[in-house]
Design a protein that fits this description.
The complex is a heterodimer of chains A (332) and B (316). By secondary structure, chain A is of the alpha/beta class. Chain A has 14 helices and eleven strands. In chain A, helix 6 crosses helix 9. The chains are: A alpha/beta (332), B alpha/beta (316). Chain A: It is an enzyme of class 1 (oxidoreductase).
């Protein structure tokens, strides 16, 4: 670590909240000789007061789980880069950042494989009742009651030949597609626009995609355009044998409508890592065996947290060295 | 053909029973008050037995049926049928390969992900309301890019390998002899070496005299405290008490098990290990499409036999 005297000369990187990677793994893994951290969360001042007092010369932010909007940016006139440790960028006001010429460095591919693995895990779990039958066995019912009834019935589904609809064919969506192809699934997708060089069929709307899918896997970012993208019409198009897996953001689905569909059997099941109002989860879901839930932990592996923290540091070091960012977010 | 008597050893699958009843005279052993008496009364007419992997054809049953011509098993596993004896006596045997390969392979990967990423434990964390009190603990185990060792590279083992490759996993295997067509996978003549070089060890071999307890203490120790064992083959391929003590003592990191030595009984300690272990009730072939496909094969083999044609999927 740099000595206290040299420290004073280092440029500052604003931390609004303590990033999970720092809190869980220890800040010592994420220090740099090229900058020092200005920790807003350690001050008793409300954020905007703190920034008014200390934000004048800050050129970089390491954002994580914190809202960065116009009111924050107004108090940080010198900021030119935001490095984030989250895959989702929905807490950053991207148009504002673009307007002010602020570059964004995101998590790159660090999370892609972990989230893709998790999405596939949730899908298989829902289709083959892995968590539900694990419960059944551990409660002693296999011995006392016999076979778990959904198994071998129309409540359990084969993967081969299933039509997978990927909503948002970005880095994560692409990794999900690659994995499911190995199971004999066919892939189609919806994204803001068709991806050149991708051979999977593209559908203009999520509703059209849902009509032609047995399972929808949500891998898109949450933006104004994608809020409640999966709505009543989409769920109806997906149909009674359809399944939804959400590893994106709870807000991409009309949660109330989805719950109603699940309770009434209008769709066959769901695998959900995210919810509209975490950690609140609709109580109706707690009773359902055709739903698998997890507490927003698709990215939460030690390896990923370490990697994403290091990537953020690397991006910031590149910025302060006037080099290209390692993982610049291009909003295409 | 309606007069041909087919004995079902147990209730297997309602669609199967219905399809058999459409074509044959189906005798249900489990409905008899006195099983031996029932067999004595009908032993001159019973020409076929339909059974499943777990029940097979016991030596006693074989001896009680002098007119038995064919055993059509609702399974791919043949470990509960004395194939040598059947061959000797001219009894045909058929099974249900291929139709269930995908489902079993899917479950193997599903169990692997469920163990590594703690899916059932995460689900319970949400259902019990714990999430409102705090974050679920950090995971440490990823699947992508890990080394997967497969014991038995038959149809099912190969299907598992193909899926794991989609996750960027490195594949190695052990089987009786190396497979030249799988030269891109690493072959280990010793299961212990395979385990030592694997993060996840998947048992996908048939149960035979040679493979009974092929996963023993030495193999489990080689797999190690961060290793995960997945078994979708037969419970007896694994030394179950050794598996349990390794998990309890932390010498093995986790296990995903679809089969057990004494189904449907599962060692109590496996249940107490909770998130280290994911258990399934022998559900490898458990989708409607596959069970129907298996049932159609069982019926198809019987029909072929009684029509004097080639069996669809003969074993003997």
């Amino acid at each position: 670590m740099a000595s206290p005297a040299a420290d004073e000369d280092l440029p500052q990187v604003l931390l609004i909240k303590n990033p999970p990677a720092f809190a869980v793994l220890g800040e010592e893994h994420f220090t740099s000789t090229k900058f020092r951290y200005l920790k807003a969360f350690e001050s008793s001042l409300p954020l905007h007061d703190f920034l008014a007092a200390h934000g004048g010369s800050v050129r970089a932010i390491l954002a994580s789980l914190s809202v960065v909007d116009a009111s924050v940016l107004d108090l940080l006139p010198e900021v030119r880069v935001i490095a984030t440790t989250s895959a989702g960028l929905n807490l950053l006001d991207l148009p504002e950042c673009r307007r002010r010429g602020i570059k964004i460095a995101n998590a790159g591919d660090v999370y892609s494989t972990d989230v893709a693995d998790y999405a596939v895990g949730l899908l298989i779990d829902v289709l083959r009742k892995i968590s539900a039958s694990n419960r059944y066995v551990k409660q002693g019912f296999w011995a006392s009651k016999g076979d778990y009834y959904p198994l071998g019935s129309k409540f359990c589904f084969q993967l081969r030949g299933k039509r997978i609809g990927i909503v948002g064919l970005g880095r994560i969506g692409y990794q999900v597609a690659k994995r499911l192809e190995a199971f004999g699934c066919s892939i189609a997708y919806n994204s803001r626009k068709a991806k050149p060089g991708v051979s999977y069929p593209f559908y203009q709307t999520v509703q059209e995609l849902a009509a032609k899918s047995d399972a929808l896997i949500l891998c898109c970012g949450l933006t104004q355009q994608t809020r409640h993208l999966v709505n009543k019409e989409v769920l109806a198009a997906l149909g009674k044998e359809g399944v939804v897996v959400n590893v994106a953001r709870g807000g991409v689905i009309d949660e109330k409508e989805m719950v109603r569909c699940l309770v009434e059997g209008e769709i066959a099941g769901a695998g959900l890592d995210v919810f509209e109002n975490e950690p609140e989860v609709p109580k109706e879901l707690m009773e359902l065996d055709n739903v698998v839930m997890s507490p927003h932990c698709a990215v939460r592996t030690r390896e990923s947290l370490m990697e994403v923290g290091r990537l953020a540091v690397g991006n910031l070091e590149a910025f302060f060295s006037n080099e290209p960012l390692l993982s610049e977010f291009e909003d295409d | 053909m309606e007069s041909i008597a087919v004995l079902m050893t147990k209730p297997i699958y309602s669609y199967l029973q219905a399809e058999l009843e459409k074509r044959f005279k189906v005798l249900k052993l489990w409905e008899a008050q006195d099983g031996s008496r029932f067999l004595e009364d009908h032993n001159q007419i019973i020409r076929a037995v339909v059974s499943d992997g777990g029940t097979g054809l016991s030596p006693e049953l074989m001896a009680a049926l002098p007119k038995l011509e064919i055993v059509s098993s609702f399974s791919v596993g043949m470990d509960k049928i004395d194939l040598g004896k059947c061959k000797e006596k001219g009894i045909r045997v058929s099974n249900t390969p291929d139709v269930l390969t995908d489902d079993v392979a899917d479950l193997a990967i599903g169990l692997t992900l469920a163990v590594l990423r703690k899916l059932p434990a995460s689900d319970r964390y949400v259902r019990s309301g714990m999430w409102k009190k705090g974050e679920f603990k950090l995971g440490t185990k990823q699947f992508s890019g890990k080394s997967v060792g497969i014991v038995g590279l038959g149809r099912i083992g190969q299907a598992i390998a193909t899926r794991a490759e989609g996750f960027g996993c490195k594949i190695s295997y052990h089987s009786r002899t190396p497979k030249p067509e799988s030269s891109n996978y690493t072959y280990y003549p010793s299961v212990v070496d395979l385990a030592a070089h694997s993060d996840i060890l998947v048992v996908a071999c048939a149960l035979t005299n040679e493979t009974r307890h092929i996963i023993n203490r030495e193999v489990i120790d080689a797999l190690g405290p961060r290793g995960v064992l997945v078994n979708i083959a037969r419970g007896a391929t694994v030394d179950e008490p050794e598996l349990v003590s390794a998990l309890v003592e932390g010498r093995l990191g986790g296990a995903g098990l679809d089969v057990f030595e004494n189904e449907p009984n599962v060692p109590e300690q496996l249940i107490e290990l909770d998130e280290k272990v994911v258990l399934a009730p022998h559900a490898g072939s458990g989708t409607e499409e596959t069970r129907k496909g298996m049932a159609d094969l069982v019926v198809g083999n019987l029909v072929a036999h009684f029509e004097g044609k080639e069996l669809l999927t003969p074993v003997v």
